[in-house]
Specification:
Layout (H helix, E strand, L loop, with lengths): L2 E3 H8 L3 H10 L6 E3 L2 E5 L2 H13 L4 H5 L12 H30 L9 H12 L16
Antiparallel strand pairs: 1-3, 2-3
Length: 145
Amino acid sequence: MKHLDIGEVAQRSGVPASTLRYYDEKGLIASTGRQGLRRLFDAGVLERLALIALGRAAGFSLDEIARMFGPNGQPRIDRLMLTAKAEELDRTIRSLSAMRDGLRHAAVCRAPSHMECPTFCRILGAAASGAIGGRKKKAPKPPGN
């Protein structure tokens, strides 16, 4: 089985060596040994790094990604977690689409002032309520606090 040193893995994957060391320390990847001071990795690490990159691009945390691998290192992806992330992305897309549409409207609005435009005022209300703009709504306080 061919082993790659950390420099080769970094070059082939596009992941900096410092990140590879961090992933190794977090248990996301595992070095197979050392050649002098350089860590060695099994060639299969490239596929694992591609899965990590896909997870990061989808918005998963490194801890969530780590849970997507079984003890043997093989992918063990929780389909419910994928569904929940897809739903979260749908909410983000709707919010960003509303923001984009609002910006486009504001750019061409013919009202003398944006504050006189009913559409712009609705956008302001949505932003103030947290419905658009990515602001998280605060959970209600429990009674008695």
